[in-house]
Every structure is written in C-alpha cells, then in structure tokens.
Amino acid sequence: MQVRVQEAGFDLGAESDAFAAGVAGSGAIVTFTGVVRDADAGGLVAMEIEHYPAMTEKALEAIAIEAKARWSLEDALVIHRYGRLAPGERIMMVATAARHRKDAFEAAEFLMDYLKSRAPFWKKEILTDGGADWVAAKPEDEDALTRW
Fold first, then answer.
1. pTM of the prediction?
2. Which class is domain 2-145?
C-alpha cells in the first residue's frame, strides 16, 4: 500500500504500470484519476489546495488500510496533489488490485468517496473575475459515504 501527498504532477501511465507490475497475481486492477474541472466553463483560473502534511498523510493511510481490510485487496495506491493546479491538471489517483473485480471496484469507489468528502484538504477556487471561493462540502458527496 502506498499513499503519496505531493505538489508535483504525476505520470498516469507510469504510475499505473508501476502499480500493475507489483500486483502480477491480481485478476483486477482499477484506476481512477481526478482532474481539476472548471464547472463554470472559463470562470476558473486555478484551484489552490492546502493541507497539514502529517495529518493528511496519516488520514489517507488509515483509510487505505481500512479499504484493504474491508475488501480482499492485493494492494492500493493513493496519490493526492496540493498547491496551485490549473483546470485540466491531475489532482489525484486511486488504484486498487484484487483477485476479483468486485473487490477492486468497490474499494476504489470507497477510497474516492472518502477523498472527496473526508480527506483533510482545503480547496480554494481562484476565479477569472479576481474572486476566490473556498470549496464547500456538497450534500451528495456526504451522502455517497452512507453506502459504506
């Protein structure tokens, strides 16, 4: 299991290949990559993501350990970026590997739902009009956690 919180971008293909090479006995590998999106089509300049390193890494490691315990995972990878990110940049990646696809898919969804609503990151949108707004939690993101 690997958790990385980093400012630098990451190569999706290289990360996926390296993860897959370490889980050669798995029957299923699921990956998901989140990107910064401009919900207002042209209104977003950047998203600034802040965190407290020791707290963030510990929280992500705990949820990855929980995912590995709840599903029969061979391995899991979580990468989450911080700093200033432009629309279209990769913000995070989750990869899970299991003998069977159901475990890999469910564990990946669990990790993604957690990252979206509970991971200790603070996100601020920098707008083209000069404004800046902190991103608030959405009810639908919170609701997604109830299935777990």
1. 0.93
2. alpha beta
